[in-house]
Write a structure and sequence with these properties.
By secondary structure, this protein is an alpha+beta fold. The chain has a single domain, classed as Nucleoside Triphosphate Pyrophosphohydrolase (Alpha-Beta Complex). 28% of the residues lie in helices and 22% in strands. The model has no long low-confidence stretch (mean pLDDT 92).
Amino acid sequence: MLVRPAGARFEVFMLRRSQSSHFVPDAYVFPGGTVSETDLSERALARMRISPHDIDAQFRAEAAPAAAVPLATKREAAGLLFAALRELFEEAGVLLARDARGEAVAGSAPESRSDFLELLETRDLYADARALTFFSQWLTPAQFPDRYNTHFFLARALPDAVAAADAHETHDGLWISPADALARNAAGDLHLVYPTIKHLQRLAAFANVDDLLEFARTKPILALTPDAVENGFALPPALEDAW
């Protein structure tokens, strides 16, 4: 969930998934994707700036009551951070990286969105995992044949970042306030799926990026599975504002 200040409040960047996508076609989502073996490799870990202590501090999730949600191992946690930064680069064209001196580099993708790891190695850059804050973890209910153990992260866009859809997997990128996204969804103008709606509702409760990030750094993280109901999904009442 990439956010930026907008006037007195803030916006989040969203992308429309391709009509041909196997998963939630035509829905507006946050940039993201699947962890690859490369994301889990020592080669990727060598191109990411974060300590084991910082990884442990980030991944403080606990399984919600009665929710059998697998929690990430240390190796998986590092791969999740790298994958989140890679997918942000590939899908939205936003690069969160630092040079060998630890200075932040330009916030937008240079030239084409080529191989993320090769780009880091060629330019002697390091994926900036410290720019991410682990926000939540949702697992698709067991009734569904395809289950997605999804980790959501929050990041502030650098002032010079220019986000745009890749025009292949995603289209129609837009910066929008969480409240406006929810209103457009209610009006039938912006297709959203249940987990996205619930995250936008949580984001909409905050007045600015600083308040949101402070909340994200200190909030509990309950890894959960929503209930499957007749019209889609629902959170158990006890988890509604606790995750």
